[in-house]
Amino acid sequence: MSSVQLQDFAAGWVGGAASVIVGHPLDTIKTRLQAGQGYGNTLNCVLTVYRNESVAGFFKGMSFPLASIAVYSSVVFGVFSNTQRFLSQLRHGDPSHTPALADVALASMVAGFVSVGIGTPVDLVKIRLQMQTQPYIEANIKIKPTVPGFPVYRGPIHCFRTVLQKEGIAGIYRGMGAMLLRDVPGYCLYFIPYTFFCGWITPDGCISPNPSSVWLAGGVAGAISWGTATPMDVVKSRLQADGVYLNKYKGTFDCILQSYQNEGLKVFFRGITINAVRGFPMSSAMFLGYELSLTAMKRDQTETNP
Fold it and tell me: Is Mitochondrion among the key words of this record (predicted)?
């Protein structure tokens, strides 16, 4: 693999770490709204978490995604950029040729498909850690321990090991079907708007977009992508949070059916506001970290290899 190809993976790692630091508190609220019980709205959820768990409650489960989402984002951006180069080489004989819209869409779908292999276990552990202090509420079912706030898992490694021992590989990849349905189209609505807005905002004559253009285009793309991905994100969150105490859903379709029967169509749009709002700063940080680190690496390479 060439240095140019490796640079995309390295820059994706930086972007992923930046997005986790910026977006994890809002991600915790989003997960509690989608898979938890007793929250009337976003503000009520924020106040309840703060009142019961203080500021630390918003950062529950952050260590594992911070360590792993960088790898996840590295794969997403690396696969996306290298697939684009491959398609440009295939179509035009030049990997640096500006990709067509169809090539951006295909590269986005490939990145989304590949990312699920890494992203599903990461999301599962993160959501289990975020949800483990929530009391389980179900008619005529009493789960012990019943003390609210009693932790089920001691940390991300213990969570991963416990799920693997009790549920096997299938448990680690619980929610994978819903994540595929979320991420394959979701990344199309992530990279295509970003490419479009970057090209639109960047002044004529500039070789690469400036940081403000990257920040704005990345934020808009993130808000669009996460907003439209909310229905399948709800299903994925419910499936993955479900196993903290017991398995209520048999699979993706069963989760969709039960959720609809019990709470109606509106359940699939639960957390859409927080999803769209958190999508902006997370994606701004992601693309800004990616583009700035990529530019720095290319500059260093030029200076060392004049």
Answer: yes
